[in-house]
Write a structure and sequence with these properties.
The complex is a heterotrimer of chains A (about 475), B (about 100) and C (about 500).
Chain A (H helix, E strand, L loop, with lengths): L38 E2 H13 L3 E2 L2 E2 L2 E4 L9 E4 L6 E10 L2 E15 L3 E5 L4 E5 L6 E7 L6 H17 L14 E5 L13 E6 L2 H20 L7 E6 L4 E4 L12 E2 L6 E2 L2 H9 L5 H12 L3 H7 L3 H13 L3 H19 L10 H13 L4 H14 L3 H8 L7 H14 L1 H8 L4 H13 L6 H14 L2
Parallel strand pairs in A: 12-13
Antiparallel strand pairs in A: 2-6, 3-16, 4-5, 4-15, 6-7, 7-10, 8-9, 11-12, 13-14
Helix pairs in contact in A: 2-3, 5-6, 7-8, 7-9, 9-10, 12-14, 12-15, 13-14, 14-15
Chain B lengths: L4 H10 L6 H18 L23 E2 L8 H9 L4 E2 L2 E5 L4
Antiparallel strand pairs in B: 2-3
Chain C lengths: L7 H9 L5 H19 L2 E4 L2 H16 L11 E5 L26 H8 L3 E6 L33 H8 L5 E6 L5 H7 L2 E4 L19 E6 L2 H11 L29 E5 L9 H16 L3 E5 L4 H19 L18 H12 L2 H14 L5 H24 L2 E5 L15 H5 L6 H6 L3 E9 L2 E9 L4 H15 L18
Helix pairs in contact in C: 2-3, 5-6, 7-15, 9-11, 9-12
């Protein structure tokens, strides 16, 4: 995962995506002779935050090491990483389904490292090009234990992890920009066997969807081999999104003797309880806790809570609305219904729209008071969502407020009764449905603004009273 | 512990250096002389000794997360030094064999 | 007397008194370079004279405007060619970086520029600072000013020879295992390696990062203190630069406080040390006694283990530090490569000299899978032992005195084919690097017309007292005014 810092991990170049090639660089991230790294404090704090959110033991002592290998996108021919003393160890992440923990995934380690550059290939000219802009972007690597049992669980893990990182604002997790990447190891186990089979590593799965498809493909591939009594060899394979297949990577790319050794240019990190406590204090409530609070304290259903906490912004919107309108179930219904639909239609995220929790609360208050009709409320919501305008003003401008004034309504009722003698007769003749028709006519006369309850009462007393 | 020619070849390949046959022989011989000298360290009792990776008692040397953009001049000179380039990119022989 | 013969301090005083101008000094240095550089070959790059002179004019202007002066304003100087300079190529003595212009100045380059010193060139060195004779330069060897059949030492041999030959008022070098002190000893000048972390390494092209430290080569101890005043101090771009209050080393230099206690390790006067070297160093030690210094023979039990540990640590780090020279971003790229695989191997085969290859491979071996514990880790543990040896010694001694080098300068070509014998030159200098301690080499006598250096090692960050003591010792030794006699161009070469 890329950490959401302002500058790179070991230099002051901006940590930004999408610049002109080789312009977002300096002597340090280019690894020019004589340059030296200086560690970004914010990268440390964000990683500690993420580690705490993942229930990890943050190490009191950790250090950087050099991982040595040659590749054109690696300017120093070594990557500054963490080897035997990672920043954090032994955490876990619970996977939730319908409000229940279905699996606890152990996090073995969490460490910091720098990103490499980007390579582009030109097959016709038989050459490659290097853009070093991404060099030195701070990365946090998480290694889990072999705890997930299916591609579904893997996907759920990625989603849950993403949520935590978003909640803690440690990474923006934009997969399309490469800020969340994953490699996965898969090994199958025959029924009745205790030991797992040989493990195969899959690289280059650059979206949640790709991770799911890649794993599914690989399980089938391995299962087929095993059914044919074949053997699985330990190898690294590459997911090809366009082909929907995994391919074995060339043996040369696998030949590794990284010659890790302590990075002499960076003194170690020594953290103490006080520093950790200070960072811990900054941790927001995490998704799982939030969901259970929504269920237990606010009475939401598990599936509702799960959708609400899927993004911290959505859950915040929900709670902010409750500040002004304290009916959780109603707010939730509106959020999960019309608002999610509108977001989907416009392709926006909740944090991007001008519509605010205050607006939603106001709208719901007006509706509850009966000042507008349910149908009008939906109309106002769409309008307010689209233009970010105050619902009260929309109601005013469009004249959508309900008419509660009995005198005003009596007039309309009299006119309708005069204009529809047939229906009056039907009603009196015992056809009670004719009342609904008459209410509709009054609504029409008042352009839908009449309070239907009052109209109903007025009609009844007019019709029944004459009896 | 002595070093053979194949180990020198392995190390040369890890270090990405091509050696001629004569060089392989020469380095094998010199490595053995140097390693023999180095092996005097084997006589020391070191099990209980902590390694020194940094002589200074420094830790947590951190910088503030502030952005400073390189000047155009630096960027230009960096590209100026490229053995081969195209526009703003460094060019290398194809990686995909 | 020619101006180039002055020490940096004397020249600065003459400037302050308006007896000379910065241009006069610069002219004088260029005149000297023109006269003797062919015999010394201490430079890789000499800066255009006009450029240096125009800088001298500017400095002179600011001098006359009564600008608050740094003490060495207007003094011409030289940097070792592994210190980055924006306006001059920085080659590290290697074909790999021939013609390479770094896009930035090293911290020390900036500091010296701010102080108004005038850069005249970049000095020759063993390729990537690997060597003890400057014969490993990719370009040409530097010759010892005292006898041009002999080596000047290394790897800062160019800097040492230029100071000795009066082609520069002072020079900077880098010291990873003795690369400032050993050539200073062999060339009869003062060479000082500060405590690790005192001078920023930002812009010093790394050989072995945990050992490298920029040092000074000067004509005497006072010049050394004055240069140190400029280059020492915290730099936030180097994470191993120590944040501490800046000291003034040249002030009160002559005020050596009370009497000091000095330890003389008996292990440093045994086999393999030339008799004349022992004699000259012992003479220096006797002089100390005359001024009330307490001299005690002590034991430095692991001295002999320092060298093998050093060669493991230094080569391992260098194998990683030098991996970046792959022909992709800058520097040399082999023209014979057809694919990426070849590009790496051929670039490094053609771009590196034999000693660099030897050390890079040795270091790769020491770190490689299965050997890490046996070699690299072991060396790190020996480092701890060496540090503890020193800590113990410094519990009741202020300084340690030993020879800088076991021999005086040796003949060109004498040790080229025998790496281990060459490595043994560093036997007394590497302990200070392993422990990160400040150490100075001061000329203390001669053997067969070649200078001998005496080394004083001090406690971490005890530079001030170390230099005060060295200053006093230097004045007692009375050898600093003996200069090499180099036949100038046009004179008959009688050697």
């Amino acid at each position: 995962m890329e950490l959401q810092t302002e500058s790179k991990i070991f230099c002051s170049c901006p940590n930004r995506f999408g610049e002109k090639p080789n312009t977002n660089v300096c002597p340090v991230c280019l690894g020019l002779p004589g340059s030296l790294p200086v560690f970004n404090k914010n990268a440390l704090e964000l990683a500690v935050k993420a580690a705490l959110a993942l229930n990890c033991q943050v190490a009191y002592y950790s250090k950087f090491d050099r991982k040595n290998y040659f590749y054109p996108d690696l300017p120093k021919a070594y990557q500054i990483s963490q080897y035997d003393y990672p920043l954090a160890k032994e955490g876990f992440l619970d996977l939730l389904k319908d409000g229940h923990v279905i699996r606890r995934v152990i996090i073995e380690r969490l460490h910091l490292e720098e990103d490499a550059g980007k390579l582009m290939h030109d097959h016709e000219k038989a050459c490659s090009y290097v853009d070093f802009n991404r060099c030195g972007v701070p990365l946090m690597e998480i290694v889990t234990a072999p705890d997930m049992r299916s591609p579904q669980e893997a996907q759920l893990f990625l989603e849950s992890l993403r949520r935590i990182l978003l909640y803690t604002a440690t990474s923006d997790c934009k997969m399309e920009e490469g800020s969340l990447r994953c490699d996965a190891n898969i090994s199958l186990r025959q029924h009745g066997e205790k030991l797992l089979g040989e493990k195969v590593e899959i690289k280059n799965m650059n979206s949640f969807r790709a991770a799911f498809k890649g794993l599914e493909y690989e399980i089938n591939r391995q299962a087929e081999i095993l059914q044919r009594n074949g053997t699985i060899s330990q190898e690294t394979r590459r997911w090809d999104e366009s082909q929907g297949k995994t391919y074995e990577m060339r043996s040369k790319e696998k030949e590794h003797d990284y010659r890790y050794f302590p990075e002499p240019d960076l003194p170690p990190l020594v953290l103490n309880e006080a520093m950790l406590a200070r960072i811990k204090k900054q941790l927001p409530e995490l998704p799982v806790q939030r969901a259970s609070r929504f269920i237990e304290e606010l009475g939401l259903r598990p599936y509702q809570a799960e959708i609400l906490i899927s993004s911290p912004a959505l859950a915040n919107f929900f709670e902010d609305t409750l500040q002004h309108f304290s009916e959780p179930q109603i707010v939730c219904n509106w959020l999960l219904g019309d608002i999610l639909r509108l977001l989907k239609e416009t392709g926006q995220e909740i944090e991007e729209v001008a519509f605010t929790p205050q607006y939603l609360a106001e709208l719901l208050a007006v509706l509850e008071k009966g000042d507008i009709s349910g149908r009008s409320a939906k109309e106002v919501l769409e309008e307010s969502f689209k233009y970010g305008s105050n619902p009260r003003r929309i109601i005013e401008e469009k004249g959508l407020a309900q008419i509660d004034d009995e005198r005003e309504l009596s007039e309309a009722v009299s006119q309708v009764l005069i204009g529809n003698p047939g229906a009056v007769e039907d009603y009196r003749g015992g056809n009670k449905k004719a009342l609904t028709f008459l209410v509709g006519m009054v609504m029409k006369q008042t352009k839908g603004q009449a309070n239907p309850k009052i109209v109903m009462n007025l009609l009844r007393s007019e019709l029944d009273g004459e009896n | 512990m002595t070093v053979g020619k194949n180990e020198v070849e392995y190390v040369a390949s890890l270090a990405r250096i091509t050696l001629s046959e004569e060089e392989k022989v020469m380095y094998t011989e010199q490595f053995n002389t140097i390693l023999e000298y180095i092996h005097m360290l084997n006589k020391l009792e070191l099990d209980e000794v902590e390694p020194t990776t940094h002589v200074l008692p420094l830790h947590n040397v951190l910088r503030k997360d502030l952005v400073k953009v390189s000047t155009q001049k630096i960027i230009e000179q960096v590209l100026e030094e490229a053995p081969e380039k195209e526009k703003f990119l460094f060019r290398v022989p194809s990686i995909i064999e | 007397m020619e101006l180039y013969e002055l020490t940096a301090c004397q020249a600065a005083n003459a400037l302050a008194k308006k007896e000379v101008t910065a241009c006069d000094l610069t002219e004088s240095i260029y005149k000297r370079i023109a006269a003797v550089e062919d015999k010394i070959k201490g430079f890789i790059t000499v800066r255009e004279k006009q450029e240096a002179l125009s800088e001298a004019v500017q400095v002179q202007d600011s001098l006359e405007k009564g600008d608050k002066l740094a003490s060495l304003r207007g003094i011409p100087m030289t940097l070792k060619d592994n210190i980055c300079t924006l306006n001059l190529p920085t080659t590290c003595g290697s074909k790999m970086l021939q013609g390479y212009y770094p896009p930035y100045d090293a911290h020390v380059t900036e500091k010296l520029q701010e102080a108004g010193t005038i850069l005249v060139g970049k000095s020759n060195m063993d390729e990537f600072a690997m060597g003890s004779s400057t014969e490993n330069s990719s370009f040409y060897p530097t010759l010892n000013p005292w006898n041009q059949h002999y080596v000047p030492g290394g790897s800062s041999g160019g800097s040492a020879a230029l100071v000795a030959a009066r082609e520069t008022f002072f020079a900077l070098g880098s010291d990873t295992g003795g690369s400032v002190r050993q050539p200073a000893s062999l060339c009869g000048v003062v060479g000082f390696k500060p405590t690790y972390g005192l001078v920023s390494r930002y812009g010093l092209i790394a050989f072995a990062s945990s050992l490298d430290q920029i040092g000074t080569l000067t004509r005497d101890v006072r010049d050394c203190a004055m240069v140190l005043d400029i280059i020492a101090g915290h730099d936030s771009r180097d994470s191993t630069s120590v944040p501490r209050e800046k000291e003034n080393y040249s002030r009160d230099l002559e005020k050596s406080s009370s009497s000091f206690r000095v330890g003389i390790p008996r292990e440093c006067f045994g086999q393999g040390v030339e008799e004349d070297v022992k004699k000259a160093v012992k003479r220096g030690i006797e002089k100390c006694q005359q001024i009330g210094t307490v001299i005690e023979e002590i034991s430095f039990p692991h001295n002999e283990h320092a060298l093998p540990a050093y060669y493991l640590v230094a080569t391992a780090e260098s194998s990683s530090n030098l991996a970046r020279y792959d022909g992709i971003q800058y520097g040399f790229r082999s023209k014979k490569a057809e694919n990426l695989h070849d590009l790496y191997r051929k670039t490094r085969e053609e771009g590196f000299g034999p000693e660099v290859k030897r050390r890079v491979m040795l270091g790769t071996y020491a770190l490689s899978s299965g050997y890490y514990d046996a070699y690299y880790l072991k060396a790190l543990k020996v480092r701890t032992i060496i540090r503890k040896d020193f800590e113990k010694i410094f519990e009741d001694h202020d300084f340690v005195i030993m020879p800088t080098s076991p021999t005086v300068a040796f003949a060109m070509g004498e040790k080229v084919d025998d790496p281990l014998t060459m490595y043994l030159n560093d036997i007394f200098t590497v302990p200070a690097n392993l422990a990160g301690l400040p150490a100075i080499s001061i000329p203390c006598g001669f053997s067969r017309g070649l200078p001998v250096g005496l080394q004083v090692v001090g406690r971490p960050f005890d530079e001030k007292r170390l230099l005060q003591f060295s200053y006093k010792l230097e004045s007692l030794l009375q050898v600093k005014d003996i200069k090499p006699d180099i036949a100038e161009v046009g004179q008959t070469d009688i050697s």
